[in-house]
Amino acid sequence: MAIKKITLCLCFLALSFVFQTELFAVSSVKLKAKSAILVNAATGKILYAKNVDKPMQPASLTKILTLYLVHEAINEGKIYPSDGVKISTDAYFTSGSSMYLEDGAEVELEELIKGVAVASANDASVAIAEYLGGDVGSFVKKMNAKAHKLGMSRSYFKNPNGLPAKGQVSTARDIAKLARAYIRDFPESLNLHAMQSFTYRNITQTNHNVLLKHYPDVDGLKTGFVRAAGFHLIVTARRDGTRLIAVVMGETNPVIRAQEAAKLLDIGFRMTKAGERASRTSYISVREVDCPYE
Hints:
Beta-lactamase
């Protein structure tokens, strides 16, 4: 009996040591990002945090909220993926990343959703907002109401695509809340976010989320960039039953945002004992990429 007690005590001490070591490893991680967070998608537990409430322009991470409202309306039977959406002049002239919509054309809603999810199309975001809200202003009101309902208490949105707008702001913590709710409520949406390219009008565009190719089990979620805030990324991966969500905001270039997001995933999977397979992040090409308002 005494031997069993000693063995149990030693096991407990060993587990305690491992746990404390993991905590030390997490707390000692240094990222270049202005803000970052890592969460367990199932529990919401925060595994890493840096300046998580720092207000920043969310850039194209905004589009996840736009897509949330679209998927919600589809699930409620208010709209359908096969719906034809007429492209307005305002949508056509929207600047930044684009799926090259034609003024006055009618495009299936499903194609617009793919354009937003994969090509980060600003023009498609406006077309969706006009279709679902009647006009962009009304849709943005829906966005802010949904953000409030999701507990995004430090966020405020001015448009459906994340283009620079005075007063448009969010935080890493709020973005993580949004991403977690989006994946929980619409898990099928990851089939779109996992697409590495998108073709419309014979124009093929590559997903800016390079971790889809370079990190095992990554299946989303969204990149973003505006010059005032820097490069952002929400990335999610599922391994051995554990799904993690990492958010990095305010990186200096797209390569670093991918590398640091991958570093957070590595930490998280080690903590959850799901990290047997090594990442392949060393194969990410180190080069500058022009991302005009991703």
